[in-house]
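Reading a protein record of the kind used here takes only a little practice. Think of the row as the fold of the chain written in a discrete alphabet. A record is reproduced here so that you can trace the correspondence yourselves:
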Amino acid sequence: MNRPLLLSLCLLPVLAVMALLLSLPCCTRLFQPCGSGNIPNTEQTEERLRTHVFQLADTIGERNAYKAGTMERSAQYIEQALAGMGYAVTRQAVHIPRSGEYGAVRDRTVYNILATKKGTSPRAKTLIIGAHYDTKVGMDNWHDHGPARPSRTGTPGANDNASGVAALLEVARILAGPPTLHDVCLAAYANEEPPFYQTPAMGSVVHAKSIAARPGKDKVIGMIALETLGCYSPRVNKKRKSAVVAGLAGLPDRCDYVAFLSTNTGKNFARSCADEFAALSRFPVRSVAFPYYMKGVSWSDDWGYMKEDIPSFAVTDTAFLRCDDYHETSDTAEKLDYPQFAEVVQGLAGLIISIASKP
């Protein structure tokens, strides 16, 4: 997860920020959990999530283009997991060019991992669900976007973003059973983290461009990025102080909700999904939309699709806004809150099946 909006907002005078937020009615909505409906037993989901996060973060560890061995092991782990569920898995090349501030990894190729649940409709559209599997290489500070310091230990990335990949795999498992009218593309991306973020070498940018070219954005329902989804218990947070306006924007300190974050280009899609999530799950959800023109808007792999005018948003626990382990070597598997994480993932699975089943 990268370049959070609130880091940019903090550079603005507080009064200006407040005035802007007040001028944007309905920029944030809180959806209360549905009081009816039965939540399925989460124990199996919880155990699978725990296994995936542990394997990626604690067994494989730091994984990025600067660590070619662990990057490939991560790709193989995701491929094998999806293939074991019955999916046909393909790789999409993501080339790191000679130009750019990439250091020793210039002119190297890494891979997006792709699988598709086929819909039954002859006029099927595509819903894209994605999560990045790379982690941040060592840098001078947790918030830096460069230069890369490969000699330093990078993050093992349990929450950022083994949690998103674990959610993707568990959604894929649940999705494999029931038929849907529309296709669901499941994408695990390379190169979301700095120094690749918002560059042509970002995996989700490569995929978004390929989707816009064929089948075309008119054939896409939307894109949902699964990003840092594992933290829901109260904890000491010093990084939160660097984003004091987060609460004003609709993202309070409390850790008891999941956020659907979008820009103007994806707000209608995000809010309709939040409405439906609230009807399917008792877990609280906040939907927040920020103006496209504000500097720093974008949270994750949704950015590349936003640039192609494909409705997109990020689902997140809000990362550093509630967790000091963000982009640190302390981002390890035992820190995550798996019971709540499992509830969120079950709600997302139900949401995705519902979206893909609508005429």
Notes: The chain has a mean pLDDT of 88. The beta strands are 28-31, 89-96, 108-117, 126-132, 183-189, 220-227, 258-263, 285-290, 312-316. The domain at 5-10+23-356 is CATH 3.40.630.10 (Aminopeptidase). DSSP finds nine helices and nine strands in the chain.
